[in-house]
Write a structure and sequence with these properties.
The chain is of the alpha+beta class and about 130 residues long. It is about 55% helix and about 15% strand. The protein contains 6 helices and 3 strands. Strands 1-3-2 form a 3-stranded antiparallel sheet, covered by helices on one side. Helix 3 packs antiparallel against helix 4 and helix 4 crosses helix 5. About 10% of the residues are buried.
Length: about 130
């Protein structure tokens, strides 16, 4: 992200890739084609810049369950455009695994294994992670 921001600052344009987009796109397509042949996987040929945008939107929605946040991240002005990215998402149930931590060491271990902090209750910290 920092590299993309640096590109945007250099170009002084609203577009991230500015005038270099066509050459970057051509390079990306060539690399993608070479990788498709090398790995003998035709599905790689279907990946585009737009695929990465869909992936980012999907992961942000999965993480936050906040469509307005995703709309802001994508820079959309209309929620209907954002819904295009999230209408196929089915991550299963919203079930969580809960754990508690009474010490800083326990809390650190939970965070390192992917748990997110929820709240404090009677001096005990509560964490959760999706199943």
């Amino acid at each position: 992200m920092a590299m993309l921001t640096a590109l945007q600052v250099k170009s002084k344009s609203e577009r991230v890739f500015g005038k270099w987009f066509k050459s970057l796109e051509r390079c990306f397509f060539q690399q993608r084609q070479a990788l498709t042949k090398k790995l003998r996987n035709p599905r790689i040929h279907k990946i585009s810049f737009h695929t990465f945008r869909h992936f980012k939107a999907t992961m942000e929605y999965h993480k936050t369950r906040d469509i307005l946040h995703v709309m802001k991240v994508l820079g959309h002005k209309n929620i209907k455009n954002t819904l295009i990215y999230t209408h196929l998402i089915d991550f299963g149930s919203d079930e969580y695994v809960s754990k508690v931590a009474t010490t800083v060491q326990e809390a650190r271990q939970l965070v390192e294994t992917g748990f997110e902090y929820v709240t404090d209750m009677d001096g005990i910290k509560i964490f959760r992670k999706r199943k």
